[in-house]
């Protein structure tokens, strides 16, 4: 190096000197100064392009007109563009067809998680398994109150369900109640006694639960002989169900078990199709659609794939 | 007669003297290094030529495809006839480890060899300054003369030519980088027809600007103030490390030639400052080892040529270890130094891992993820059901047919899967499977369960995945 800028004898000082130590005026390296000014310039550019200076109500808007919500909507449009071809095909397909198509089924399983989480998981649990003892039906086993085929699941989602079991507090003696409680628990374990069956038939339980106590999916009457409990297998809980019933308006201690309908219009349509009629004749224009028909189909496939679908 | 003020000013003057001796190169003065031929200059050209691979590599074809291609959109890395998927990315970690330790090992043996001969900053700067010195003079005096000369057509022409050549090299650098990530020939077409994708333009712009600024203007300032390696080097050196060093014992006291002869009363150094003139980072090696030294050996070439002319033995400046220079005894042999042994061991392990990885690349990737919400379900007959997500990636070039089965758990049955599963090459097949076990057979909360995927067509491949079956306590 020919010149030496750092020679203290050649560098001017600020005029400050303490005990012979001078404060020198060594400039920082030029590249450093340039990058400092460039970053300052960048701040200026940012101020002009983007919202920056806070005012009393709001802020300057910036030349680009950028806002967070616009960016969010752009992102949303992007994801919807990716999903659009799938969603369009879904609208044309029946739930059964979706179930049979590997690609569409995988798409539905992957994309319905949020829809299920927003509308269903509060009661039925994230994976179709509600909190034990909460009294909501389990969706991921092979026991179905109204049927576990894909079409039945669609129907349940569209119409909603509310089974009814009358309260028996005034119809049974305490001893009979005790015996029926024991019968129901024994039946679940496959150990029901002759006497138990006799009382079951005498008291008319068979009318809903069937002569073999395997339930009736037309009514939503549960199967009493399997290991799945609609509410709970604890003796006190079984007693409460027998004495106070389910959805019995006349008993204040009755169990409330109501699944709301999510698409009345679809429910009406399904009913019309069942009778071979044109759904247009059935609509009265007041039907609500809390979820779209496509959303119902997606949820049905999602629930079917929990593990219990038939 | 002690005047405290006076005394202190004497000592501060000493400090000032000392400070002024230690120049800090902050880019205020442009380094114009003289170019000389010699052993290390040849070695430097050789090291630099390795970078031709960077420029030419993307055009090598293999089986009609680009031989080395980092296909980011498709998440594949093609290396001749091997295709590496992101699942095998651990090999990249080992490769990076290998080169990081190689750098440390080489540094501990022979200093910043990488900096002096291979580093892109050194190499590109060397090419840029070669162009500059050809056009504007190869000594500070000539460069100053050129700079202060009145503006003429020739001067403007030379400056324009310099910057044009710089920009062409910079753009080639950017284009070559992009060419490793997409089809190289197509990329040229895309650039010239202005059809290239946005990332390609950004890469080109950033590399062009970066090369032009770093190699053209910042040069040794990058080594001094930006490069972290320059800051780390001192912990990798020890007293056995070979470094370009000035033999002060032989050279001092330095003195000018007397009547064309070496002054016998003085040392070997004739203070010609040739070692300083050739240094690309502008340091004086005679002040000892310092941060700016990239150990390129240019000063050795320069000094040797002077020694030859003055009929003195070569090697006044030479590659020598601290021990050799200051304690006059030989360095410990390379493989008896603990740190070299440890570096060597890590090098072998990481290299072995990469070789193992490449020779044992699995043609598939199989994963079984048990459902966690809920862990298990009781069915109406009392049996316990677990749900699993099976993912199988086909890394071969052909479609495969797969059959799944389970083992390791007495009485467990597999449900919900088709008999044969067809998987296209490069695709992941995702399926949901259920495993059921009779209630009586469930005797512990967690039981081991093995999933096996048998590839029915093609090579006899069996892939196992050890999973769990969960049940009530």
UniProtKB/TrEMBL annotation, chain A:
Task: Write out the transmembrane intervals.
Answer: 31-49
Cofactors: heme c
InterPro entries the record matches:
CcoP_N (IPR032858), CcoP_N_sf (IPR038414), Cyt_c-like_dom (IPR009056), Cyt_c-like_dom_sf (IPR036909), Cyt_c_oxidase_cbb3_su3 (IPR004678), Cytochrome_c_Oxidase_Subunit (IPR050597)
State one molecular function term (GO): oxidoreductase activity
The record's region (Disordered) falls at 1-20
Keyword Methyltransferase tagged: no
Q: Where does heme c 2 bind?
A: 165, 205, 208-209
Please give the chief subcellular localization of this protein.
membrane
Identify the keywords attached in UniProt to this record, alphabetized: Cell inner membrane, Cell membrane, Electron transport, Heme, Hydrogen ion transport, Ion transport, Iron, Membrane, Metal-binding, Oxidoreductase, Repeat, Respiratory chain, Transmembrane, Transmembrane helix, Transport
Q: Which GO terms describe its biological process?
A: oxidative phosphorylation; proton transmembrane transport
Q: Which domain of life is it from?
A: Bacteria
Residues involved in heme c 1 binding: 120, 123-124, 259
Which pathway, per its entry? Energy metabolism; oxidative phosphorylation
Q: How does it assemble?
A: Component of the cbb3-type cytochrome c oxidase.
What function does the entry list? C-type cytochrome. Part of the cbb3-type cytochrome c oxidase complex.
Describe the family membership recorded for this protein in Swiss-Prot or TrEMBL.
Belongs to the CcoP / FixP family.
* PANTHER family xrefs: CBB3-TYPE CYTOCHROME C OXIDASE SUBUNIT FIXP (PTHR33751)
Q: What is this protein called?
A: Cbb3-type cytochrome c oxidase subunit
TrEMBL record, chain B:
UniProt superkingdom: Bacteria
Example of a GO cellular component annotation carried by this entry = plasma membrane
Q: Which UniProt keywords apply?
A: 4Fe-4S, Electron transport, Iron, Iron-sulfur, Membrane, Metal-binding, Transmembrane, Transmembrane helix, Transport
Signal sequence segment: none
The keyword Transport belongs to this UniProt entry's keyword annotation: yes
InterPro entries assigned to the protein according to its UniProt record, in alphabetical order: 4Fe4S_Fe-S-bd, 4Fe4S_Fe_S_CS, Cyt_c_oxidase_cbb3_FixG, Electron_Trans/Redox, FixG_C, Ig-like_fold
- Reply yes or no: does the keyword Lipid metabolism apply: no
An annotated Gene Ontology molecular function: metal ion binding
Q: Transmembrane stretches, by residue range? A: 43-60, 89-110, 165-182, 194-215, 340-358
Q: Which residues form the 4Fe-4S ferredoxin-type domain?
A: 258-288
**Name of the protein:** Type cbb3 cytochrome oxidase biogenesis protein CcoG
* Classification lineage: Bacteria, Pseudomonadati, Pseudomonadota, Gammaproteobacteria, Thiotrichales
């Amino acid at each position: 190096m020919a010149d030496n800028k750092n020679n203290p004898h050649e560098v001017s000082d600020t005029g400050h000197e303490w005990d012979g130590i001078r404060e020198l005026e060594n400039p920082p390296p030029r590249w450093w100064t340039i990058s400092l000014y460039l970053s300052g310039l960048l701040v200026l550019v940012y101020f002009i392009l983007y919202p920056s200076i806070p005012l009393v109500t709001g802020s300057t808007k910036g030349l680009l007109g950028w806002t967070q919500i616009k960016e969010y909507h752009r992102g949303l449009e992007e994801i919807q563009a990716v999903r659009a071809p799938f969603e369009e095909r879904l609208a044309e397909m029946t739930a059964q067809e979706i179930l049979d198509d590997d690609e569409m089924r995988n798409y539905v399983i992957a994309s319905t998680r949020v829809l299920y989480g927003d509308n269903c998981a509060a009661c039925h649990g994230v994976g179709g398994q509600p909190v034990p003892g909460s009294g909501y039906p389990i969706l991921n086993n092979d026991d179905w109150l109204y049927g576990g085929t894909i079409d039945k699941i669609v129907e349940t989602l569209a119409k909603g369900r509310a089974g009814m079991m009358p309260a028996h507090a005034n119809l049974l003696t305490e001893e009979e109640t005790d015996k029926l409680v024991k019968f129901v628990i024994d039946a679940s374990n496959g150990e029901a006694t002759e006497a138990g069956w006799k009382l079951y038939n005498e008291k008319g339980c068979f009318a809903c639960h069937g002569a073999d106590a395997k339930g009736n999916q037309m009514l939503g009457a549960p199967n009493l002989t399997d290991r799945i409990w609609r509410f709970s297998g604890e003796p006190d809980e079984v007693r409460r169900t027998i004495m106070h019933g389910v959805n019995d308006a006349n008993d204040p201690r009755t169990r409330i078990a109501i699944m709301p309908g999510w698409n009345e219009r679809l429910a009406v349509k399904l009913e019309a199709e069942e009778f071979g009629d044109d759904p247009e004749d059935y609509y009265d224009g007041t039907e609500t659609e809390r979820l779209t028909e496509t959303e119902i189909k997606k949820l049905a496939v999602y629930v079917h794939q929990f593990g219990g679908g038939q | 007669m002690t005047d405290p003020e006076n005394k202190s000013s004497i000592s501060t003057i000493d400090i000032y003297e000392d400070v002024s001796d230690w120049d800090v190169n902050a880019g205020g003065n442009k380094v114009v290094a003289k170019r000389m031929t010699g052993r290390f200059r040849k070695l430097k050209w050789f090291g630099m030529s390795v970078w031709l691979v960077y420029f030419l590599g993307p055009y090598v074809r293999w089986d009609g495809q680009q031989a080395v291609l980092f296909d980011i959109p498709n998440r594949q890395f093609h290396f001749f006839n091997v295709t590496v998927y992101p699942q095998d990315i651990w090999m990249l970690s080992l490769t990076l480890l290998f080169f990081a330790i190689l750098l440390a090992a080489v540094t501990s043996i022979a200093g910043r060899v990488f900096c002096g001969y291979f580093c892109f900053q050194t190499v590109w700067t060397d090419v840029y300054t070669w162009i500059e010195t050809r056009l504007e003079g190869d000594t500070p005096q000539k460069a100053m003369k050129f700079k202060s000369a009145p503006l003429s057509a020739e001067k403007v022409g030379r400056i324009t030519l310099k910057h044009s050549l710089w920009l062409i090299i910079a753009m080639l650098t950017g284009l070559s980088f992009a060419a490793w990530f997409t089809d190289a020939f197509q990329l040229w077409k895309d650039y010239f027809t202005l059809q290239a994708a946005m990332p390609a333009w950004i890469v080109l712009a950033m590399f062009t600007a970066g090369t032009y600024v770093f190699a053209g203007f910042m040069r040794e300032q990058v080594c001094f103030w930006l490069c972290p390696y320059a800051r780390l080097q001192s912990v990798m050196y020890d007293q056995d490390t070979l470094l370009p060093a000035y033999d002060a014992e032989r050279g001092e006291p330095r003195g000018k030639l007397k009547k064309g002869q070496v002054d016998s009363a003085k040392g070997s150094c004739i203070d010609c400052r040739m070692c300083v003139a050739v240094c690309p980072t502008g340091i004086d090696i005679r002040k000892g080892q310092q941060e700016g030294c990239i150990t390129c050996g240019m000063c050795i070439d320069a000094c040797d040529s002077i020694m030859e002319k003055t009929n003195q033995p070569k090697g006044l400046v030479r590659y020598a270890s601290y021990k050799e220079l200051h304690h006059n005894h030989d360095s410990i042999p390379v493989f008896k130094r603990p740190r070299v042994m440890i570096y060597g061991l890590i090098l072998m392990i990481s290299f072995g891992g990469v070789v193992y990885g490449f020779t044992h690349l699995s043609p598939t990737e199989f994963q079984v993820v048990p459902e966690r919400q809920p862990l298990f379900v009781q069915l109406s007959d009392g049996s316990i059901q677990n749900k699993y997500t099976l993912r199988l990636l086909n890394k071969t070039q052909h479609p495969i047919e797969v059959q799944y089965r389970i083992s390791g758990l007495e009485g467990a049955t597999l449900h919900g899967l088709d008999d044969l599963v067809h998987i296209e090459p490069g695709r992941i097949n995702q399926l949901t499977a259920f495993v059921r076990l009779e209630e009586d057979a469930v005797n512990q909360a967690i039981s081991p369960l093995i999933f096996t995927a048998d590839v029915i067509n093609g090579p006899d491949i069996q892939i196992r995945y050890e999973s769990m079956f969960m049940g009530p306590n």
